[in-house]
Amino acid sequence: MVSLITIRDAIALQGIAELNQLSRQFDQPPALMQAMLKQLEAMGKIERVEADSSCLIGNCKDCPDGKKCLTEAYRIKKHISV
């Protein structure tokens, strides 16, 4: 099983990583990967990035019935030091 540290490191290396991308990369079910990402988010290690609006017409292969892509993407949370 993949660890939270491994997921965090993968996001750091990629800059921004999508839920489905990480699920395929680590061969884990999307529901489990989503739960782990939510845990990292609650711990303040990562933050959710707003959905990409580049697929405005819904013609992607993965879009069911022509709906726009709704992706969950995450990046490392930037810590502001004062």
From TrEMBL:
Keywords on record: DNA-binding, Iron, Iron-sulfur, Metal-binding, Repressor, Transcription, Transcription regulation
UniProt xrefs under Pfam families: FeoC
InterPro entries: FeoC, Tscrpt_reg_HTH_FeoC, WH-like_DNA-bd_sf, WH_DNA-bd_sf
Signal peptide span: none
Domain Transcriptional regulator HTH-type FeoC: 4-74
Molecular-function GO term, any one: DNA binding
Binding site for iron-sulfur cluster: 55, 60, 63, 69
Record carries keyword Ion transport: no
Role description: May function as a transcriptional regulator that controls feoABC expression.
Family: Belongs to the FeoC family.
Protein's UniProt name: Probable [Fe-S]-dependent transcriptional repressor
UniProt lineage: Bacteria, Pseudomonadati, Pseudomonadota, Gammaproteobacteria, Enterobacterales
Gene name of the record: feoC
